Amino acid sequence: MILISFTLILFCFLSAKSINAECTTQNICECVYSDGSGYSFKNLLNPVNSSLKSYAGTDIQIFFNPCFDSKDLPTFPENTTNDCKNGFTLCVYDSLKNHSFVLGTTKDTKFKEEGDQIFMTFGTTSNISSTVLLQCTPNSKTSTLYAPKETNENNTNLILFSNNACIKQIKQIEAPGFFSTFFLIAFIVLLTYLIIGIIYNYFFVGARGYELLPNYDFWCKLWISVKLGFYFVKNGFRVVPTEDSYDAI
Questions:
Q1: Cβ 143 vs Cβ 52: under 8 Å
Q2: Which of 33, 138, 221, 247 is most buried, by CB atoms within 10 Å?
Q3: What is the pLDDT of residues 205-228, one digit of tens each?
Q4: Superfamily name with CATH number, domain 22-169
Q5: What pLDDT digit, counting tens, does each position of 23-66 carry?
C-alpha cells in the first residue's frame, strides 16, 4: 500500500508542470522561470546602449539601462564628479552636489520576487541597495521610469511602467512525454523496491547471498512464466505441450 501511494505521488510530481518560484537570470537582461516564461528587456531601449531617463524633483536625474553598462549621459558641468562615466545600469546624478553615483551595473543586477511583484535589484555596496519595480502596462507603446521625489543616491526605489515588464514566453520547454515519465517512475519504483527489500531481508530476516533479493523465488519463476507466455502467443494462443503432457506422449 505504501509503495502504491509512493508511486502515485511520484507520478503526479513528475507529470505536473512545475514552475520554479524564482525567476532565474538567463542573461544580463532576461530572467526565466522553469516553464520558459519570464521577463525580457531586449526591446526596451533602441539603441541598446542608450538609457531610460527620469527625474526626481529638479535636482535628481536617474539613468537606467537593464541590458548594458551604458555611458549614455548628458553633458555635466566641468566640476562634476562623474562616477558613471565608465558605465552603469543605474545611475543617479545630483545637481546640488555636482556628483553622479553608480547604483548598479550588469554584474550586480538580480531579480527578486515579493508576493506577486517582481523587482530588479542592484547592490554596489553592502549598505546601498536600489530597486526597480516592474509594472506591466501591456497597451503602452513607450516605457516610463518613475522616480519618487525622495530619491537620492542612498534611497532609489523606482518603478518601470512598460509592456516589456509583462511576463511572456521566453523559450519553449518541452515537457517529458508520457512513456518517458512512465519508464522513469517504473525504474525508480523498482529500485526503491529492491533497496527496501534487501535492507529488510538483511536486518530482519537474516538472509544472506542471493536470498537478500526480495521474493527471489517469485522472480525466478516469473521468467519461466514470461517464456511460456511468449510461446503461447507464438503458438496461436494454444497451450504448448510439455514433455510430461498427454499430447507429447
A1: yes
A2: 33
A3: 888 888 888 988 888 888 788 888
A4: Mannose-6-phosphate receptor binding domain (2.70.130.10)
A5: 888 877 899 998 889 999 988 988 877 899 999 888 999 999 99
- Separation CA 12–CA 179 (nearest Å): 14
Give the total residue count for the chain.
249
Residue 242 vs residue 132, higher pLDDT: 132
Sheet holding 117-125, edge to edge: 109-114, 117-125, 128-136, 157-162, 144-146
**Look-up of cell digits 511468449:** 230
Among residues 94, 224, 80, 77, the alpha carbon closest in space to that of 147 is found at: 94
Q: Tell me how far apart the alpha carbons of residues 135 and 145 are, in angstroms, rounded to a whole number.
A: 10
